[in-house]
Amino acid sequence: MRALDGLLTRHPELKPIQEDIVAAYRLIEEAYSRGGKLLIAGNGGSAADAEHIAGELMKRFRSPRPVSPTFAEKLISVDAERGAKLAKNLERSLTAIPLVAHEALTTAYINDVDGLGVFAQQLFGYGRAGDVFLGISTSGNSENILNAAVAAKAMDIRIVGLTGASGGKLAELADVTVCAPAEETYLIQELHLPIYHCWCMMLEERFFGEGEPA
Asked: What is the CATH number that goes with domain 2-58+93-208?
């Protein structure tokens, strides 16, 4: 796991939670191996992290992800000019849905039903057994994340918590909790980014081959 070695070299303070980082990665890897997907939610800076993670997984992170020759041929058979361009430019994805997006849906649910249940509603609609819910909460106590985790558990969706040092109430619900060893929100978030970048790198290497050296 070159990406993990690189992470721990750059951030030796993460070595005490190395096993949790790997365990969380394994849950996500298993979901993708079985045709599942990743559903991600957070608030504030963690909402931005949710979008960031989806962006790294839905297209190349570091390695090329060309479509298969068979699919390239199908594209060209539909439209020779456009298909050839798509065959060159489309990239294979690891399906990741940031629940913080979809403004019309989320604002309608918040306005009409329940502001703290909006992530749970999206997860209930998008999620299926075998998926993974990644709940990002620096405190581990964000009520909308906890509600989504309860829904996930009821749906046989595995839960990864990405939190601060305490783990909060999310640690009680999650299958794996990765507790960044910091107390202040901005310091926790500064550690969350290299952790999830490491996951994205490891997933890309697993499913699409090796990229540049870490």
From this structure: 3.40.50.10490
Which residue from 51, 63, 24 is spatially nearest to 212, judged by alpha carbons? 63
pLDDT in tens, 63-80: 999 999 999 999 999 999
Paired tokens of 88: 């060159």
CA 128, CA 117: separation in Å to the nearest integer? 18
What are 4-44's pLDDT values in tens digits?
A: 999 999 999 999 999 999 999 999 999 999 999 999 999 99
Q: CA–CA separation, 62 vs 54, rounded Å?
A: 14
AA identity, residue 86: L
> Is the pTM higher than 0.85?
yes
Count how many Cα atoms sit within 13 Å of the Cα of residue 47 in the half-sphere of its side chain: 10
Tokens of 172: 């009680």
Please give the span between the terminal C-alpha atoms of the chain, in angstroms, as a whole number.
Answer: 10
Please enumerate in sequence order all residues whose Cβ is within 8 A of that of 63, keeping only pairs 6 or more positions apart, or say none.
204, 205, 208, 209, 210, 211, 212
Cα–Cα distance measured from residue 164 to residue 133, given in angstroms and rounded to the nearest whole number: 17
Q: Where are the domains of the chain?
A: 2-58+93-208, 66-92
pLDDT at 201 over 80: yes
* Beta carbons of 121 and 59 less than 8 angstroms apart: no
Q: Max CA-CA distance within the chain?
A: 56
Asked if residues 132 and 162 have their Cβ atoms less than 8 Å apart, the reply is no
Query: Which pair of tokens denotes residue 159?
Result: 């839960």
Contact 131, 106 (CB under 8 A): no
